[in-house]
Design goal:
Layout lengths: L4 H10 L5 H41 L4 H10 L1 H48 L16 H13 L8 H18 L6 H5 L1 H8 L3 E4 L3 E4 L1 H17 L4
Length: 234
């Protein structure tokens, strides 16, 4: 016996399809965009350096070494702008944007799992679920983490390295946004940050000023993708 249209319609209405995995894929796709933006950022820095270097070679090809040094002294502002201003502003901007994507991605997942749970409870005739992540104490990714783990029961694998790197990234972002790029004691004591200082992904100028190397961008993006890819949603 075939099902009547009304039975089919009711069966369809009773189906529960989780939307959270779709939103997770959307969040991951945004980090693909950041990968493209990373290539754009690093290529722009390289092109600018090449442009100035080519101009230097062209303008000084017939000069003596002493004259070349004099030329460089007179035009050193261009080199300073590229090495110390343009490059650092570009790399810092990338980090700030990346962390905003992480923050927004965590909140997006919070909203998605809330919607799924609320719909499921309603369909099953269970007690109404109305606890949103904005009802939790704290802010940013720490609040989202608390909500997803404690309220929803997701496994975020925060004991693994990628989450630790995201927390370090948060401290670096805060130093850029709130401290003009100066590292506070908490960041200086951070084990990940100290490791990256040792392997050259960062430098500290005058003991406090964070200088970011392009290698950090190549390192942190895969860590972020690994973290979000490993989240087990309920």
């Amino acid at each position: 016996m075939t099902e009547t249209n009304s039975h089919k319609s009711k069966k369809f209405r009773d189906m529960f399809i989780k939307m959270a995995p779709t939103f997770k894929n959307f969040v991951l796709h945004r980090f693909d965009d950041m990968e493209e933006f990373k290539h754009f950022t690093l290529a722009a820095i390289i092109d600018k350096k090449k442009s100035i270097s080519n101009r230097f070679d062209r303008d000084t090809k017939d000069l003596s070494e002493e004259q070349k040094q004099e030329y460089f002294d007179w035009n050193s502002e261009d080199y300073f702008m590229v090495e110390d201003v343009f490059t650092q502003i570009s790399l810092r901007s990338f980090i700030v944007i990346l962390f905003s994507y992480i923050d927004d991605g965590m909140n997006t997942l919070c909203n998605a799992v809330y919607s799924d749970k609320a719909i499921y409870q309603k369909k099953k005739g269970l007690e109404k679920f109305n606890v949103k992540y904005t009802d939790m104490q704290g802010k940013g990714i720490i609040r989202a983490k608390l909500y997803l783990e404690k309220v929803i029961g997701c496994n975020l694998h925060t004991e693994k390295k990628p989450w630790g790197e995201i927390e370090t990234l948060r401290k670096i972002r805060n130093a850029i946004v709130h401290k003009d790029g100066n590292a506070n004691d908490s960041l200086k004591k951070d084990s990940n940050f100290k490791h990256h200082l040792n392997d050259g992904k960062f430098k500290l100028e005058n003991h406090d000023k964070i200088l970011i190397e392009p290698e950090y961008l190549d390192y942190i993006l895969p860590q972020v993708r690994e973290y979000f890819g490993g989240i087990e949603l309920k």
